[in-house]
Structures are given as C-alpha cells and as structure tokens.
UniProtKB/TrEMBL annotation:
The lineage of its organism: Bacteria, Bacillati, Actinomycetota, Actinomycetes, Pseudonocardiales. This is Putative hydrolase of the HAD superfamily. GO terms for molecular function: hydrolase activity. InterPro entries: HAD-like_sf, HAD-SF_hydro_IA, HAD_sf. Pfam families: Hydrolase. It comes from the Bacteria. NCBIfam families: HAD-SF-IA-v3. It comes from Kibdelosporangium aridum. Keywords: Hydrolase. The keyword Hydrolase applies.
C-alpha cells in the first residue's frame, strides 16, 4: 500500500484569518502581535499548554477564561479548508491508498480536527502537540512510519515548508514541497498513485 501524507496548515487549510481578532482581544498592535504569535508557535506545537502559550504571546500572565477564548478563536481560524485539496484527498482514498495527516499543531487543534467530517478520510491523524516532538525532528518521521506500519519508500509526503521536506527526505521519504493541489495531483499521476 502507498501512503500519502499531508501537512495541514496552508496545505489542507487556508492561512488563518483570526490574527486580527486575537490581537484585538489582547489590545495588541496587529503587526507586533503576528510576530509574537509565530515566535512562540514552535513551543506551542511541541506541547506547551494553551495558557502558557497565550501568556507568552501577551507578554503577561493570562487567566484560564481568556486563554480558552483565545484558543477557541485560534483553532477555529485554522479550520477553513481548500476544496481543491479535499477533492484530491477524496480521489487518493478512492484509488485505494492510505492517507495520513502529520501536522505541527497544538493538541487543542488536534481535538477540533478529529471531529471535522473531512478528517474521516484519514487512517491516521498525528499532531505534534500530542507527541511533544515536531517536524523536522528525526523522531517525527520514525513515529510516522511506526504508526503507518510502513517503510519510507511507501510514503509520499506533502508540506509547504522546505525544512520539513528536507527532514522527511533525510528519512528516505518521497517528500514534495506543496505548491497547489493541481501540482500535487500532477506529481501523484506521474508516480502512478492517481
């Protein structure tokens, strides 16, 4: 069986539109907020608790209700998906291949994705926040292959970040930089997946 593995953010989903609302709640300048949002994101994706992440972003200790409000807005902001990617995923599934999602994302986001209708196409949903490791760590690729029960050559991996492509390729996985669903479809046809 071939496994087709997708990143989530800006591959399956569109870029979040929630940053301005999050900045407003914290009374922050939107440009400065976006810089801080991303500066602490890797730690959040690696399992930092929600309240610790939002307190770091705010630059001050926040209470649980504020953290929960920010988490809800943030996770919901990432749920807008690209229909062309969902169509590609459905075609891969119909062709009889295995699908897995491998995302650097906080655990709170993982719980939201698990109940999205489109996520049932995937045999495995793997989120870095649950594992306390993240792409491009070598341990992430080992965990992926173990979960799939697969060899590196059995997998095609799509991600929009070159550092993650490089990490997957170093693990022997066929790693392709995401440009669009159309380009991914062309590649999968060329390697006789579709």
């Amino acid at each position: 069986m071939r496994w087709i593995v997708f990143d989530y953010g800006e591959v399956i989903s569109k870029r979040t539109a929630a940053l301005a609302e999050l900045a407003e709640i914290l009374g922050a300048d939107p440009t400065a907020f976006e810089t801080t949002y991303w500066a602490h994101r890797e730690a959040y994706d690696r399992g930092m608790p929600d309240i610790d992440y939002w307190s770091a972003v705010a630059g001050k200790a926040l209470d649980e209700p504020t953290s929960a409000q920010l988490t809800k807005i943030d996770t919901t902001g990432w749920l807008t998906v690209e229909q062309s990617t969902l169509d590609l995923i459905a075609d891969i599934k119909a062709a009889g291949h295995g699908l897995a999602l491998l995302s650097n994302a906080p655990s709170a986001f993982g719980r939201l994705v698990e109940v999205e209708a489109w996520s049932t196409q995937f045999a495995h949903l793997i989120f870095s926040g649950d594992l306390k490791i993240a792409k491009p760590d070598p341990e992430m690729w080992a965990t992926l292959l173990e979960r799939l029960g697969a060899q590196p050559q059995d997998c095609v991996f799509f991600d929009d970040r070159q550092v993650n492509i490089d990490g997957a390729a170093a693990a022997g996985i066929d790693a392709q930089l995401w440009v669009s669903a159309a380009k991914a479809r062309e590649y999968l046809a060329a390697v006789e997946v579709l």
